[in-house]
Design goal:
It contains 14 helices and twelve strands. The chain is an alpha/beta fold. The strands form three sheets. Strands 3-2-1-4-5-6-12-9 form an eight-stranded mixed sheet, sandwiched between helices. Strands 7-8 form a two-stranded antiparallel sheet. It has a two-stranded antiparallel sheet with strand order 10-11.
Length: 350
């Protein structure tokens, strides 16, 4: 029995529709299988929470990446010895549904000022209850940062961890110098060499001869880390924040419940009750740490980073070197889209 032209056209349309649906189904199944095979990156964040607003948003996008299955936050350590720095990190962990993430705090450090947002965000309501739920009442109640770092690393597979340091490098230096304990029989340098595959640091300035805050706040620690860290180090320098600003428009339009979001409350407190964009140094560091293969940034040639007598960072190029720093790649639009999407992602959305 033959088919007329109209019947043939109908059959062809149905065949095309079936083929498209089959391809979509196969694409979905393949993506899920690939995603299931990719292990989330175990990451430890070391932050001087309380000094600048970008630490707050950096921790927010790290939680968003955790929700997407791209990483797993192993621990958060604080390099600012302020009574509210630890509790503020607890607020963020709790807000994103991960109150069980360990928090460790440096007990004596080089930055201890109130900062622009800690007191305002942590201020209780008139009835004494907190605006944002948290269990840690003061940083003094948290364990020592080095103990948390050692415990977190000891429980990980070899060469698996990424450490992101977005403040002075005091805790990282202390980790390197730490002695064997109940968590690991390894000395700090050996523990790091065994467990950490990448250290990402927000620090330095390679565009002009200027000492950057995270360097000069503890230059002895910074010099020690750059000298003694045996593995790969990627630096997110000051000029990356000049290139990448978090846009004010995202703060105004992208967040669903701005009055109840700790990131936006902290932004308001920082800028005197006004929404304001900011240099996104720490967000860039976190984005590269978890998505190094997305080609968001260019990289310097490899080499060895040192500090000069004025605490200015210098890279001595060496093909065998393990230090590099990030360089802007074209316009900032693609990176801006990534960080705004992650920062505004509701905590309940995986």
């Amino acid at each position: 029995m033959g088919f007329n032209q109209r019947e043939i056209r109908v059959l062809l349309r149905r065949l095309v529709c079936f083929t498209v649906l089959a391809c979509m189904w196969l694409f979905t199944i393949t993506n899920r299988a690939v995603a299931a095979e990719i292990e989330p990156i175990p990451v430890i964040l070391d932050t001087d929470m309380g000094n600048d607003i970008d630490d707050v948003f950096a921790m927010g996008i790290l939680h968003a990446l955790h929700s997407r299955g791209e990483c797993k936050i192993v621990a958060v350590t604080v390099s600012k010895n302020h009574p509210l720095s630890g509790p503020f990190c607890d607020v963020l962990n709790t807000f994103y549904g991960r109150a069980d993430i360990p928090i460790g705090v440096l007990q004596t450090g080089t930055t201890s000022g109130d900062g622009p947002y800690l007191a305002q965000v942590m201020k209780p309501l008139a009835n004494g209850s907190p605006v944002f739920a948290h269990r840690l009442q003061t940083s003094n109640d948290a364990p020592n940062a080095v103990a948390v770092l050692r415990r977190g690393l000891a429980g990980l597979q070899d060469a698996s961890a990424v450490v992101v340091a977005i403040g002075p490098l005091t805790n990282i230096r202390d980790l390197l110098e730490s002695r064997p304990d109940e968590h690991s029989p390894l000395h700090g340098r050996e523990l790091v060499a065994a467990k950490v595959r990448l250290l990402v640091v927000m620090a330095g300035d390679f565009s002009k001869p200027k000492a950057e805050f995270n360097i000069f706040s503890d230059s002895i620690a910074a010099a020690k880390v750059f000298n003694d860290w045996r593995g790969e180090v990627v630096v997110c320098p000051f000029e990356m924040g000049e290139w990448m600003h978090y846009p004010e428009m995202s703060l105004e339009k992208d967040f669903r419940v701005p009055e109840r979001h700790p990131l936006l409350v902290a932004d308001l407190a920082t800028f005197g009750g006004k929404r304001n964009g900011f240099m996104a140094w720490d967000l860039v560091a976190v984005l590269h740490a978890i998505r190094p293969d997305r080609d968001y940034f260019n990289m310097s040639k490899p080499g060895k980073i040192d500090l000069d007598s004025e605490n200015v960072t210098r890279l001595k190029e060496d093909n065998e070197g393990k230090h590099r720093y990030l360089i802007p790649r074209g316009g900032p639009e693609r990176v801006r889209e990534a960080i705004t999407s992650l920062a505004s992602q509701p905590p309940s959305i995986p």
